[in-house]
Each structure stands twice: as C-alpha cells, then as structure tokens.
Design goal:
Layout lengths: L1 H28 L4 E3 L6 E2 L2 E2 L2 E3 L5 H14 L2 H27 L10 H8 L2 H29 L5 H26 L8 H18 L1 H14 L11
Antiparallel strand pairs: 1-4, 2-3
Length: 233
C-alpha cells in the first residue's frame, strides 16, 4: 500500500510538472496578442486599464502549481520543476530559431513573413520572460516557505497570497523593463501595462486560493498527511 501511494504521488508530481512547463512555454509563444479582460473603457498612462497580453492567461497557473508543489512535495521538488521549466523554454527558443531559418514552401499556409511576424519577437520575449520568471519563481518559493515555517503549517491562504503577490509584482516589473529595453514594447506603455498586469495577476492569485485549499485538502486526505507534512518521492 505504501509503495502504491508513493507511485501515485510520483505520477501526480509529473502531471503537475507537465502542466507547469506547458503553461510557461505557451505564455511565451502567445504574448503578442492583447485583449481587454474587463469591459470598462478606462485608461491609465495611455493604456487601457484592463488591457493585458494573452500570455498572462496561463502564467498564473505556474505560480499556483509551485505553491501546490511547495506545500505537498517541499521546496526542493518545487525548485526542480522551476529549473525544468527554464530548460523547456530555452529548448523551445532553439526550435523557433531553426523554424525561422528554414524557408517555407510556395504552398505553405503560413509563409516566412507571417511566421516571423508572429514568432520573430519570441526569442527576445523568452529571454526576458526567463530572466523575470527565474527571479520571481524562486522568490515565490522562498517567501512561501518562510510563511509556512513561521506559521508552522497553518494559514495556507496567507502564504499562498503573500508569496504570489510579491513574486507577481517582481515578475511583471522585470519582464516589462526587459521587453521595453528590447524595443518589443514602447516605453510610453510601460506604466499602464505594469499596473494592468499587476492588478490582473493579483486578482487571479486571490481567486486561486480556494483551488489551492481544495487540492491540499485532497492530498492530505488521500495521503494521510498531517498539517505541514510533505510527501517524499
């Protein structure tokens, strides 16, 4: 029975890692499309207050997953997934470079011009995102475990929101500075996108708290974990 439980824990860990990596890579590839996530026509610093990149849609999932991993599997296993995400992103970067280098056929539904227009900025975006992401994710994990140790495993909502809020602000600030420095986004949109991005991410982080509680409750009940206890795999 113990070996069966451990096998289940390993499978769940791999699934969470796969979802984390898929969300991260996808967010880097789709970032050039922007949308309004709330139907209010309000501007701040010449940018619509609720105007954000679609790349932000899967990104909060990565922070939710690292919080789940930190809570259930521990700091070390959460860091392993973060590092795997970095390798996956740079691997996708290499594939994009190769794909842009090879010429399209005359009958290709997507020609070279269209492909480069959509993915041409992706390498720099991935670089900017990775630098911000690396910084933010490791801060997220460290802040999470700081509050977990301080509260002795209690007040899950506190460490979830404190770690995610702080890391999301740092991530948004860092990636926008880099994207503006690379001339991918104009500097006059910096403050507006910063505020819009932070507001969006904080709201999503607050909404994912019930999800985290539900997942942690499932793990504790299924694997008979005590408050603050972690699974060793």
């Amino acid at each position: 029975m113990i070996s069966q439980k451990k096998s289940q824990a390993q499978i769940i860990y791999l699934i969470l890692a796969a979802l984390f990596i898929a969300s991260l890579v996808t967010s880097n590839l789709i970032f050039q499309k922007f949308f309004y996530w709330y139907p209010i026509d309000s501007e701040i610093f010449d940018v619509k207050l609720f105007e954000v990149s679609v790349g932000l849609l899967p990104y909060p999932i990565t922070f939710l997953i690292t919080d789940i991993l930190s809570e259930i599997y521990g700091k070390k296993k959460a860091n392993h997934v973060v590092i795997a995400g970095i390798f996956a992103s740079f691997f996708s970067l290499g594939i994009i470079y190769v794909s842009m280098a090879v010429p399209s056929t005359s009958w290709s539904a997507v020609n070279d011009t269209t492909f480069i227009e959509v993915f041409g900025s992706a390498p720099l975006a991935v670089l900017a995102s990775m630098m911000a992401y690396l910084f933010a994710q490791f801060i997220d994990i460290r802040v999470y475990h700081f509050w977990k140790n301080l509260t002795k495993g209690k007040h899950l909502w506190l460490r979830n929101n404190f770690s995610t809020f702080s890391s999301q602000v740092i991530d948004t600030l860092t990636v926008l500075i880099l994207l503006c420095s690379f001339d991918i986004i104009a500097w006059d949109k910096f403050l507006g996108l910063l505020i819009s991005g932070v507001v969006f991410k904080i709201m999503i982080a607050a909404l994912d708290t019930p999800i985290l509680y539900a997942v942690v409750f499932f793990f504790r009940k299924h694997f008979n974990l005590k408050m603050g206890e972690e699974i060793e795999i």
